[in-house]
Amino acid sequence: MRPQPLHAQDKLAFLLALVPYLMDHDRVSVGEAAEHFGVTEDQIRSAVRLIAVSGIPGETRQYQHGDLFDIVWDEFEEHDRIVLTHQVAIDDSPRFSAREAAALIAGLQYLSSLPENADRDTVSSLMAKLTRGASATPSQLAVAGAATDEVLGTIRTAVAGEKQIEFDYLNSRGEHERRRVDPLRIESVDQDWYLRGWCHLREAVRTFRLDRMSELEATDEAISYRPADVTLPETLFEGSADDLTVLIELPSEALPLLADYVPDGATATRAGGRVRTSLRVAHYHGLKRLVAGLPGIVTVLGPEEARRIVADWAAAGSARYDDSPTAERG
What we know:
By secondary structure, this protein is α+β, with helices and mostly antiparallel strands. The protein is built from 10 helices and 13 strands.
């Protein structure tokens, strides 16, 4: 198919796209650029000549050396190759610092490791652009895939195919049970992934944390219950009659972070910017995870057994630092 003539609006869009294309390619032939944009080689040559006399005038409102784009003219005229040597205004635009770019690249690496992100070429291209566009070379980072990645991929396939799954599950009381579940929904909270599904052992909807699953197997058996057949609660964490109640104190602004654990009708006493309220937990050992997620913020007030379990856990962690070689040298 022969390239079509460009209208005025199309020419502007073409020029705006050509400049970053040339910036991303240190050396490109006229033919390659024409094929990429679907235009004739003469249109590429005309556009390059126009770019080479484009720029931003200086304070005198007259064009001086350095105010225009520039190319290697010998390469262009003798070998039909485009090499952009000077960029105007684009180099002066704000850039990410090396640290900012490294943080963004680390986030993109994490996203690319998730099973649902199949189009990883796009993510790789974006990481490359962040590296080139930073004010300095970003630190080299590598984000390891989570141990739950394989489990997550298997469950996503089961949810899409409406197939039952089986797995060994370690509950909050430290008990192992084999479960057969109709997987209905996958959700994440911070760095943790959860599965909501119909548990055939409990004959009710249950929530399972993926990192507590082992020996996961996808079956060929169709699910018995679909999301429309059951009621999935709005909140991820649902209480039960066996839950234990714990009294805590924390800053008022931090209370929403634990809202899912606060039972309906719980009283909240506020004083001096802090609030006392109760939480429901399946087991006192579950408090350790909540306290670790809000270090120095949550204070467990009671019952005494809950305080002792959290205090012993904190003391054990502190003892590891006391026994370290660094501590001994100090």
